[in-house]
Design brief:
Layout: E1 23-24, E2 28-32, E3 40-48, E4 64-73, E5 76-83, H1 87-95, E6 124-128, E7 131-135, E8 142-144, E9 151-154, E10 171-172, E11 179-184, E12 193-199, E13 205-212, E14 217-218, E15 223-224, E16 228-237, H2 240-244, E17 251-252, E18 258-264, E19 273-277, E20 281-291, E21 294-302, E22 323-331, E23 340-343, E24 349-353, E25 365-370, E26 379-384, E27 390-393, E28 399-401, E29 405-408, E30 418-426, E31 431-438, E32 448-451, E33 461-466, H3 467-471
Antiparallel strand pairs: 1-5, 2-32, 3-4, 3-33, 4-5, 6-7, 7-8, 8-9, 10-11, 11-12, 12-13, 14-16, 15-16, 16-17, 16-18, 18-19, 20-21, 21-22, 22-23, 24-25, 25-26, 26-27, 28-30, 29-30, 30-31, 31-32
This protein binds 4-hydroxy-3-methoxybenzaldehyde and fe (iii) ion (FE).
Length: 473
């Protein structure tokens, strides 16, 4: 079968499908030195395209999953990437072509895959209960081998998770191994069911709270504090009748509200507190914490539709708008159901991260991608959340960066004391680099830069797993 990719914006520039599996033992140092204490593996996931899309169109969040790993020890970094060989990938490999149609619309798939999971496994990777899992919010996790990325299988926590999918944005505590996660549209596409799970380091479910969303929302990310799980609902809504007509998985409803549910951990759905605001999108969460009776949430907030490729029900494509890191504050003692919101960085920014060990507690150090310009370039930003000061490292004209990953300098290091790992895109050479920065001084530029003899296409999110954890089985 002929392989010919369409000429569409989703494939221009850096986003051209790569479709390459790589193995490099010992990436070449360009400058500096890899910190001697760095010992562990950085896992990331992203989308690529196994075969030309069945219906000739594509959007950047779709595409078959590619798993990436950087293994670092004794000053040496090795890189490997592999397709996630899940059911979707294997069915298509056998057919030699794409068999799944529009993003998450099962009514547009080839009849031969009616009973095959359409999960793409393209968004995030975590290590939990000794398993390395690749995540996408359209399916349950898919387990792969921690050393080779070879396939192991779809994972449902021994049958204990009854939801049809799990988020790609669980919160995962390095210290106690607890996994806090959820499923939205948890009884199938277009359902309003959502469930919060608190799962311990041996896969036992400690907390399971089912409730209903106000509408069948996209719920891409959430946040947790010691007492609350915070769920954002935004008017990107799934309608099964629209799917049957061959429509998009989400439609934008500008006249609906943003609704935020604060779910009491250990409580019931009757304890949920509801807050409302004008239509907009909450995408990735930096962090949330409690201050007396107020819950603060730092998140990338869009004043309108974050995904302009999802039209309104009458087919209108509204313009996209930039995300700004914003602080939303919810007062549990107030009688009303509004919340406060203010920008904390005045430059557009996305893919926010912190020192994961402190998620749910007030942090000082935040990291994100800032200032994606018209030329596609972007920088790593660090915000001092106490003073509001933002510092940046820009890798150069036309260059851009993937989401940064914080790694603590050593197990007991104070919050924010460590390194940032960053994949850099160099458009002029069409190659990537791995940069390692001092997390407290990103403006100084990398302490090490490593040459990659290939382009790393989009990656969304990832996890650092210390070597000690990986070696203990
Ligand atoms: C998002 C990302 C997704 C997705 C739905 O950033 C929403 C938001 C990477 O995949 O499937
Ligand atoms: Fe995400």
């Amino acid at each position: 079968m002929e392989v010919r990719f369409p000429d569409i914006p989703a494939y221009h520039g850096w986003a051209k499908p790569l479709r390459l599996e790589s193995t490099v033992e010992g990436l070449e140092l360009i400058e500096g030195a890899v910190p001697a204490g760095l010992d562990g593996t950085w896992y990331r996931a992203g989308p690529d395209r196994q075969y030309p899309p069945m219906l000739g169109t594509d959007i950047f969040i779709d595409g078959e999953g590619m798993a990436h790993m950087f293994r670092i020890k004794d000053g040496v970094v090795s890189y490997r990437s592999r397709w996630v060989r899940n059911d979707r990938y294997m069915a298509q490999a056998k057919a030699g072509r794409s068999l799944f149609g529009l993003y998450r619309n099962r009514f547009t798939d080839d009849p031969s895959v009616k009973d095959v999971s359409g999960g793409t496994a393209n968004t995030n990777m975590i290590f939990h209960d000794g398993r390395l899992l690749v995540l996408k919010e359209d399916d349950l996790p898919f387990e792969v081998d921690r050393d080779t990325l070879d396939p192991i299988g779809r994972y449902d926590f021994g049958g204990k998770v009854r939801a049809t999918s799990l988020t790609a944005h669980p919160k995962w505590y390095p210290d106690d191994g607890r996994l806090l996660t959820y499923s939205y549209q948890a009884r199938g596409d277009g359902t309003r069911d959502i469930v919060f799970y608190d799962i311990d380091d041996q896969g036992r479910i400690l907390d399971e709270i089912w409730f209903e969303m106000p509408y069948a929302s996209l719920v891409h990310d959430f946040a947790v504090t010691p007492n609350w799980a915070i769920f954002p609902f935004m008017p990107l809504i799934t309608d099964v009748e629209n799917l049957k007509r061959g429509g998009t998985f989400y439609e934008w409803h500008p006249n609906e509200q943003v609704v935020v549910a604060l779910v009491k951990r250990g409580g019931t759905k009757e304890d949920i507190r509801w807050f409302r605001g004008p239509a907009g999108c909450l995408s990735h969460m930096m962090n949330a914490w409690e201050e007396g009776s107020t819950i603060h949430l730092d998140t990338c907030y869009y004043d309108g539709n974050c995904f302009p490729f999802f039209p309104t029900p009458d087919g209108q494509h509204v313009e996209g708008c930039p995300p700004f890191l914003s602080r939303l504050s919810f007062d549990l003692n107030s009688d009303g159901d509004g919340f406060a919101r203010r920008r904390i960085i005045n430059t557009p920014g996305e893919m926010p991260r912190t020192d994961d060990r402190y998620q749910g507690h007030e942090c000082r150090h935040g990291f994100l991608i800032v200032g994606r310009g018209p030329d596609g370039s972007s920088a790593i930003g660090r915000i001092d959340l106490r003073s509001g000061e933002v510092t940046r490292w820009h890798p150069g004209p036309g260059a851009s960066v993937h989401e940064p990953q914080f790694v603590a300098r050593c197990p007991g290091a104070p919050e924010g004391d460590g390194w940032l790992l960053v994949i850099v895109n160099r458009l002029e050479t069409n190659l990537s680099e791995l940069a390692i920065l001092d997390a407290q001084d990103v403006a100084a530029g990398p302490v090490a830069r490593l040459y990659m003899p290939m382009r790393v296409r989009t990656t969304f999110h990832g996890t650092w797993v210390p070597g000690e954890r990986l070696r203990s089985r």
